[in-house]
Amino acid sequence: MIYVARYCQAAGKGENVIRPVDGDAGITPLGIQQSKLLGKRLKELKFKGPIYASPYYRTVATACYAASECGNLVWPDRRVQERVRTSQGNMPKGGATLEQLRQLFPGQIAPGAKLPWPWLSKTAEPEMPLHQVCMAKALDEILAENPGQDVMIVSHAGAVGVLAQEMAKRSGMKCPGFTWNCALFKYAVDDKGRFRFVGYDISFLPEEAVTSNMHKIDPKQKAASRKIQSGVDYKYDL
């Protein structure tokens, strides 16, 4: 099984925002709740594999709070980080080292994790196909490093969307789900490399916890997501 999720509710500034890493977005108390609910769902699914997270604070925090509920370890990994889309205006300006992340989340980061510094992507990727190539390469490498083992990837809305596109191409089935904070996308792959979309799940999130950072939410879009086989795995035969 391959599980993919967007990070929890994040915000740049605010009275209740937890923001321990300079130059990086923080997360909200609701974001912590979302992450723990995600971890409880993973525990229900008997997920026992590694959790790969983009090294940004909001993604590592999501992965670590989820891991604390399901007993897994987190691997901060630059291969699944958010990548800039233009050469000006949104270049990343901050991030934590591996040692800082270990201090922030004691016991949650895998002992064997490696995160060369600086890990921040400074290469502009104006075209979506290039982003998809990078994420597809990262996915294939992670699967090759974990043969026969379930894995999870926690990344950003754009990267999760790109992965969903890649999975749709490989499985022949488009996932209709929206990338809400901590929304869970589920896929299966067999030993011959055949992919199958298994399910999309936000059923573990209460109504107030279905968010897209601090953006205003269209109730119709949220209701539509609730109807997408939420919480029920598709039958699959690989």
Average residue pLDDT: 88
Which bin fits the share of residues in helices? 25-40%
Biggest sheet record: 6 strands, mixed
Please, what is the oligomeric state? single chain
Order of neighbouring strands in the sheet with most strands: 5-4-6-1-7-8
The CATH architecture assignment turns out to be: 3-Layer(aba) Sandwich
Per the principal axes of the C-alpha atoms, what is the gross shape?
globular
- H/E series, N to C? EEEHEHEHHEHEEH
CATH class: Alpha Beta
Rg, Å, rounded: 17 Å
Which strand-content bin applies to the residues?
Answer: 5-15%
What does this structure look like?
Helices cover 33% and strands 14% of the residues. The protein is built from six helices and eight strands, in the order βββαβαβααβαββα. The strands form two sheets. The chain has a six-stranded mixed beta sheet, with helices on both faces. Strands 2-3 form a two-stranded antiparallel sheet. Strand 4 (51-53), helix 2 and strand 5 form a beta-alpha-beta unit.
